[in-house]
Design brief:
By secondary structure, the chain is an all-alpha fold. The longest helix is centred in the first third of the chain and has 20 residues.
Length: about 200
């Protein structure tokens, strides 16, 4: 099957880290048109007939190629070792797909990103510290804009742990010295406390 002319959308608008939403939208347009989008949403059907498994694997291979060919060379190198298009999409969404929610403590957000960076490296990709810090900065809300500017102007170099501590301190300053509370566990019931024996 020959690729559609829509692929030009992907090659002319390569993912560079700043344009994830637009890139993803363009990718979905191409994949819907070519009927390959299902590999981003479904895992390979292990129990299915060989014909179905082979179709899924063939589509996954095509989608992986489209994704890698439509990234900057740095991002392509970082993601080329992932085995499925679904895994590439998940990592990209986690790293580039959105900003931290305003009620999420920066420590919680940083720990999540550090876990993702470790997962990326476990899969054979190399993310240098500067790239990791750039991803962190792109994921922060606009409240941290002056922190980002001071970091860049000061020509500072931090490890991710040092950056997390500095961001926590900045977050405290933003909130007048009050910590943003971590979310309670989902399975805990929150209600008025009761006193027995009174």
């Amino acid at each position: 099957m020959s690729p559609t002319s829509l692929i030009i959308i992907l090659t002319e608008n390569k993912l560079n880290g700043d344009n994830f939403r637009e890139w993803k939208q363009n990718l979905l347009i191409v994949l819907n048109c070519e009927k390959h989008k299902f590999v981003l949403d479904e895992t390979c059907p292990i129990e299915a007939q060989p014909k179905v498994r082979n179709r899924w694997r063939g589509s996954d291979s095509i989608v992986r190629c489209y994704m890698l060919a439509s990234m900057s060379s740095v991002l392509e190198k970082q993601h080329e070792n992932f085995r499925t298009a679904m895994k590439i999409r998940k990592i990209l969404e986690d790293l580039l797909g959105g900003q931290v929610k305003p009620d999420t403590p920066v420590k919680e957000h940083m720990l999540k990103l550090m876990g993702l960076f470790a997962e990326v490296e476990d899969n054979g990709a190399e993310l240098d510290v500067n790239t990791q810090i750039e991803i962190v900065f792109k994921s922060l809300t606009n409240e941290f804009a002056s922190f980002k500017d001071a970091y860049n102007l000061g020509n500072k170099t931090f490890t991710l742990t040092q950056l997390m501590k500095e961001l926590q301190f900045y977050e405290l300053m933003l909130n007048g010295g009050k910590l943003i509370q971590e979310k309670p566990e989902a399975n805990l019931a929150m209600g008025p406390s009761s006193s027995k024996g009174k």
